[in-house]
Write a structure and sequence with these properties.
heterodimer; A: alpha+beta; six-stranded mixed β-sheet; 8 helices; 20 strands; elongated; B: mainly alpha; two-stranded antiparallel sheet; 24 helices; 72% helix
C-alpha cells in the first residue's frame, strides 16, 4: 500500500451567480484521515467536495494532492473515488458491470478485472448479487454497490457525499461501522460530507465545521464538541445553553463573570484565551453539564441558579427538562441515567448548578 | 367473494360504460373487424389467398418495400438531424439554444402535404434551387422525383418527433450518473457510448418508432408529389377507383395496421424502460451543460441553423406562394397579390368554415368521451376497464386510410332512418372519423390530468360535507380543466390538417374542409395560389393551437408531440 494521499486546499473561492458558495477555504487533510465537512445545507460543503473531485472549478485558489497541484486535471484523471448521495448507480448495467466499470476504463485484463470485482463485492458482503440490476436491490444493497464500485479502482482518495442519508436509521448505524472498518483496513484518505452531527462525531478523525461558505472551526470530534470556538459551532454540533456575560474578576486559574441576567458564575480559564476584566464573552453550557436539584438539596451558593421546571420529557436513558430562570430564559437540562430518581414535575422550584470546568467561555468582540 | 365484488360495481356507471363501449365498438372496432374480415375471407371461408396474391404482384411488392424504405430513410436522416441538435441544445450552453429548441418544432406546425407542395417550389425540377443551379452551373438535381421526394418531405416534416423525444430523455439523464462515470475515468465519446447513450435510448427509440408509424400512415405527401407506389396511396387508389368491393385494398389496410401495431407496441415497451433515466431519489439534479465558445460554438451554430433553415424553407415557400401572382420558372415571384386570400375567404369560404365546424365538434366530442372514459378508468367501479382502455387507444394504430375504408365498408350501403341516405353521404361522417382518430390523444391528456388529482383531495371535500356530485363539479372538474383544454386543442389542431380520411370520406365538394380544399386546389396550376393561402391558414391554426397547448401543459415547447 502506498502512502495515503494528503490533500491541501489553499484560498479556495467559488461563486455561483451572486451566491458565494465557498469563501477562502484553507484546509489540510492528512493521509489516512477520515475527514468530515459538517454544516447545514447550503454551507458550501458539497461544492468543496465537488471541487476536490474535479466537477466544479474553483474561481480562485489551489488544490494539492500531496505536492502536486491538480486544478487543471480533469475528473477522469484525478483517481479519486466518489460515492454520491443518490448512489448514481447506472440503471442499464448489472451490479457486476457497475462495479467493473472503472476497471474497464483502465483497460485491465479480463481475469484481473473479474477477480478484483468479486473481491470488492465480497468486501461489502454482496456476493451472489452480481447479475441483478440496481432497481432490484434494497437501499442498503445499492449503497454497498456504490461503495464497492468506488473502492474497486483503489482510488487515492475516497469522497463521500452524504452517502447514508437515504438509509433508514438502523441501517445507517450499521453502514457507519462498516465505513469505518473499510476505511481503516484500506488506510485510504477519506473526505465525508454530512449535515448530521452525530454521524460526523462518530465517524471522523477530524471535522471541519462550515457555515455560509467559510470553515468556522477545524478539530477532532472531542475538540469540536467540548470547546466550540463560536456560538454557531456550539449550536450546530449538539444543543447548548448560551449566556452573554462580562468578566468581573480573576481568581487564580478561574474567572468570575456576571451574566446579562445578573448571575455570578465561576468559569475555568481556557487555554490560549486571554480574558481581561471587563471583556465580554459568551458562556456555553451543554444540557448534560447542568445539574438539577430541589433547592434544599444544594448546600452551597456557588455557580447556582434558581428556576422553575417548565417542561419535562422522559426518554428512558435521560430526562430532558426546560427550566425557566430569572429573566425568563429557558435553560435546557439533561439528567442522564434517571433510574431511581424522582422525576421533577412542571411548576416545581429547582436549583441548577454548574462545574466551572464544564462552562466554555467564548470571547466576543 | 363474488358477492363482495358485485358490491364494488356501480350500476349507473356501468350503464354509461356500456353506452361508451357500444359507441367505440361501432365506430372503431367494428369497421376494423370488417376490414380484417374482407381481407381474410374467400367467399365465406377463411383464407390467406388475398395476401398471397398481394405479394405475387410486382406493383404491391414494390409499394410495400417503398413504404418500408421511406420509413427507414426518414428515421435514419431524421436521426442524423435530430441527435446532434438534441445533444447540442441539452449538453451545451450557448446563446441561441432556446431559439433552436423552439424552431425545432416548427416543421410539425405545417401539414406534410402542404410542405410537399412548398418543397416542390424550392427543390423541384423548376424550383428556386434548380433554377439557380441552372443559371450558375447549368445543371439540375432531381431532388423531388419519386420516392426521393417523399423521403425528403417526410424527413423534414417528422424529424421533430425524434428531436423532442431524444432531447427530453437526454435532459432526464441524472447528471450524477455521468459524473460518476467521469469519476471512474470515462470521458468524451467513451462516456457518451457507455453511459449517456444507453440511458437516453428508450426516449430516442420511441421517437423513431413514432416517425415510422407516421410515414407509413402518410397519404398526403405521396399524393401531392404524384408518387403512388406506396402502401397508403395504393390502398386509397384501390378503394376510390375500383370500389369498396376490391380485395387488394383491404389487404393493404391490414398490412398497414400490422406495421403500425408492431411499431406502437415496440414504442410502448421502450417507453416503459425510459423510467430508469429519470433522476433518482435525493441528489442535486441540475443537468450539466458546458459553456462552449470558439470554433466549437461556430460549428454548433452553423450546423443547427443550416438544418433548421432547410426545414423551415417550406414555410417560407408556401407563404410566398400565397401572395404570388405569377411564380413559375422564376427564382422569386414576379408580382404579388391578395387575390388568393380573397378567393378563399369570399368565393370558397366553406373550406375554412367547415374545418372550424367539424374540428370544434370533434374536439368537443373527444373531450367529453375522453374525460368520462378517464374517470371510469381511474375512479370508476365497473367491470372491464381493460377492454375500454384497449379500444379507445386502438386508433393510434389505425391509419386514416384504413379507418376510412372501414367506414365506407360498414356504412356505405345502408340508409339511416329519417335521413333516407347512408351515413357516408352526410358531413357528420367526417366529424365521427376525426373524433375516432384523435380520441387516444385527448384521452391521454384527460387521463394524465385526472391521475394527478390525488384521491385525498376529493375525500377531503366529501369529508367536509360535499356530496359526490358537488365534489366532482367543485373539486375534480376544475382541477382537470387544464388537461381537458389541452386535449381538446390537440384534437382540434390535428383534425384540422387530417387529409387521409378526409379525401376518402368527403361526401360532396361543398362539405370539404380546409385540408380537402388544399388538395383540390393544388391539383391545378391556377389553384396553387389559393391552395397556398389555405395552407397558410392551416399553418396559423396549428401554430396557434400548438402554442396554446404548450401554454396549458406548461411543460416547455413540444410537450404535446412527445409520445
Amino acid at each position: 500500500m502506498n502512502k495515503a494521499t494528503e490533500v491541501r486546499l489553499i484560498n479556495l473561492w467559488k461563486k455561483f451567480g451572486e451566491v458565494e458558495a465557498v469563501r477562502d477555504v484553507n484546509l489540510t487533510i492528512k493521509g489516512s484521515d477520515f475527514f468530515t465537512f459538517l454544516g447545514p445545507s447550503g454551507c458550501g460543503k458539497t461544492t468543496l467536495l465537488r471541487m476536490i473531485a474535479g466537477f466544479t472549478r474553483p474561481d480562485q485558489g489551489t488544490i494539492f494532492f500531496d505536492e502536486v497541484e491538480i486544478n487543471d486535471v480533469p475528473p477522469w484523471k484525478r483517481d479519486v473515488g466518489m460515492v454520491f448521495q443518490n448512489y448514481a448507480l447506472w440503471p442499464h448495467l448489472s451490479v457486476f458491470e457497475n462495479v467493473a466499470f472503472g476497471l474497464k476504463e483502465r483497460n485491465l485484463p479480463k481475469s484481473i478485472l473479474q477477480e478484483k470485482t468479486h473481491q470488492a463485492l465480497s468486501m461489502v458482503n454482496l456476493e451472489g448479487l452480481e447479475k441483478r440490476r440496481p432497481s432490484e436491490l434494497s437501499g442498503g444493497q445499492q449503497q454497498r454497490v456504490a461503495l464497492a464500485r468506488t473502492l474497486v479502482i483503489e482510488p487515492r482518495l475516497l469522497l463521500l457525499d452524504e452517502p447514508l442519508s437515504n438509509l433508514d436509521a438502523k441501517l445507517r448505524i450499521q453502514m457507519r461501522h462498516e465505513l469505518v472498518r473499510i476505511q481503516k483496513d484500506l488506510g485510504i484518505t477519506s473526505i465525508y460530507v454530512t449535515h448530521d452531527q452525530e454521524e460526523a462525531l462518530t465517524l471522523s478523525t477530524r471535522i471541519a465545521v462550515m457555515s455560509k461558505g467559510i470553515v468556522v472551526q477545524v478539530g477532532t470530534p472531542k475538540e469540536i464538541y467540548e470547546s466550540p470556538k463560536s456560538q454557531e459551532v456550539a449550536d450546530f454540533v449538539g444543543t447548548s445553553n448560551f449566556f452573554r456575560a462580562q468578566v468581573v474578576e480573576e481568581v487564580e486559574d478561574r474567572i468570575r463573570v456576571r451574566t446579562e441576567e445578573g448571575f455570578l458564575l465561576m468559569v475555568d480559564k481556557q487555554e490560549g484565551v486571554s480574558l481581561g476584566i471587563g471583556s465580554n464573552l459568551l458562556l456555553n453550557i451543554r444540557p448534560e453539564s447542568c445539574q438539577i436539584f430541589y433547592p434544599h438539596e444544594v448546600p452551597s451558593d456557588e455557580n447556582r441558579i434558581e428556576g422553575i421546571v417548565k417542561t419535562s420529557a422522559y426518554l428512558g436513558s435521560l430526562v430532558q427538562y426546560e427550566v425557566e430562570v430569572i429573566g425568563g430564559k429557558r435553560v435546557k437540562v439533561n439528567l442522564v441515567n434517571p433510574r431511581k430518581k424522582t422525576l421533577m414535575k412542571e411548576g416545581e422550584k429547582v436549583s441548577l448548578t454548574f462545574s466551572p470546568e464544564d462552562i466554555v467561555a467564548i470571547p466576543l468582540k | 367473494m363474488f358477492k363482495n365484488r358485485l358490491k364494488d360495481v356501480d350500476l349507473s356507471q356501468s350503464f354509461i360504460f356500456l353506452i361508451l363501449l357500444a359507441l367505440l365498438f361501432t365506430f372503431i372496432l367494428y369497421p376494423l373487424i370488417r376490414v380484417l374480415y374482407v381481407a381474410f375471407t374467400e367467399g365465406s371461408s377463411l383464407s390467406l389467398n388475398h395476401f398471397i396474391n398481394f405479394f405475387e404482384r410486382a406493383l404491391f411488392k414494390e409499394a410495400f418495400l417503398n413504404s418500408l424504405i421511406a420509413g427507414l430513410m426518414a428515421v435514419i436522416f431524421g436521426s442524423l438531424i435530430s441527435l446532434p441538435l438534441a445533444f447540442f441544445t441539452i449538453k451545451y450552453d450557448f446563446k441561441g439554444r432556446t431559439l433552436i429548441q423552439t424552431l425545432g418544432i416548427l416543421p410539425l406546425v405545417m401539414p406534410p402535404f402542404v410542405g410537399a407542395v412548398a418543397l416542390q417550389l424550392i427543390l423541384g425540377r423548376s424550383g428556386v434551387f434548380n433554377l439557380l443551379l441552372l443559371k450558375w452551373f447549368n445543371i439540375s438535381i432531381p431532388f423531388m422525383e419519386g420516392l426521393r421526394g417523399v423521403i425528403i418531405v417526410q424527413t423534414l416534416h417528422y424529424f421533430p418527433f425524434i428531436f423532442l423525444n431524444a432531447s427530453a430523455s437526454l435532459a432526464n439523464v441524472d447528471p450524477s450518473l455521468e459524473e460518476m462515470a467521469q469519476n471512474m475515468g470515462a470521458h468524451g465519446l467513451r462516456l457518451f457510448r457507455r453511459v449517456t447513450l444507453p440511458l437516453m435510448m428508450p426516449g430516442y427509440v420511441a421517437g423513431v418508432l413514432l416517425v415510422f408509424i407516421r410515414v407509413i400512415d402518410d397519404l398526403g405527401t405521396p399524393l401531392m408529389l404524384n408518387y403512388t407506389k406506396m402502401l397508403a396511396p395504393q390502398a386509397y387508389l384501390r378503394v376510390t377507383t375500383i370500389g369498396v368491393e376490391d380485395k387488394a385494398g383491404y389487404v393493404i389496410c391490414v398490412i398497414m395496421v400490422v406495421l403500425s401495431l408492431l411499431s406502437l407496441w415496440a414504442a410502448m415497451k421502450f417507453l416503459n424502460l425510459s423510467e430508469y433515466a429519470m433522476v433518482q431519489r435525493g441528489g442535486t439534479g441540475t443537468p450539466i451543460s458546458k459553456k462552449i465558445r470558439g470554433w466549437k460554438l461556430a460549428f454548433v451554430l452553423v450546423f443547427s441553423f443550416f438544418i433548421l433553415g432547410i426545414s423551415l424553407l417550406p414555410h417560407l415557400g408556401i407563404f410566398l406562394l400565397s401572395f404570388a401572382k405569377v411564380w413559375s420558372f422564376s427564382i422569386l415571384p414576379k408580382s404579388y397579390t391578395l387575390s388568393h386570400y380573397i378567393e378563399i375567404f369570399f368565393r370558397t369560404p366553406h373550406f375554412v368554415k367547415n374545418t372550424l365546424l367539424y374540428c370544434v365538434l370533434a374536439a368537443g366530442i373527444d373531450v367529453i368521451l375522453g374525460s368520462v372514459i378517464a374517470f371510469l378508468l381511474i375512479r370508476g367501479r365497473v367491470w372491464g376497464k381493460g377492454l375500454l382502455d384497449a379500444i379507445s387507444t386502438m386508433p393510434l394504430a389505425i391509419p386514416g386510410v384504413v379507418l376510412a375504408t372501414g367506414y365506407l365498408r360498414v356504412f356505405h350501403g345502408t340508409n339511416l332512418p329519417f335521413f333516407h341516405q347512408p351515413l357516408t353521404s352526410l358531413w357528420v361522417i367526417l366529424v365521427i372519423a376525426y373524433s375516432a382518430r384523435r380520441l387516444p390523444y385527448t384521452l391521454r391528456a384527460c387521463y394524465a390530468s385526472m391521475q394527478q388529482i390525488h384521491i385525498s383531495l376529493e375525500e377531503a371535500a366529501l369529508n367536509l360535507g360535499a356530496n359526490r356530485k358537488r365534489t366532482f363539479f367543485k373539486i375534480t372538474f376544475p382541477l382537470m380543466t387544464g388537461g381537458l383544454i389541452a386535449g381538446g386543442l390537440l384534437a382540434f389542431i390535428t383534425s384540422s390538417v387530417e387529409l387521409a380520411s378526409t379525401i376518402m370520406l368527403v361526401p360532396r365538394m361543398e362539405y370539404g374542409p380546409l385540408s380537402y380544399g388544399i388538395y383540390i386546389y393544388m391539383q391545378s396550376a391556377v389553384g396553387r395560389g389559393p391552395g397556398a393561402a389555405l395552407g397558410v391558414i392551416a399553418i396559423l391554426l396549428v401554430g396557434i393551437g400548438t402554442y396554446l397547448v404548450n401554454k396549458v401543459f406548461a411543460g416547455g415547447s413540444g410537450t404535446a408531440f412527445k409520445l
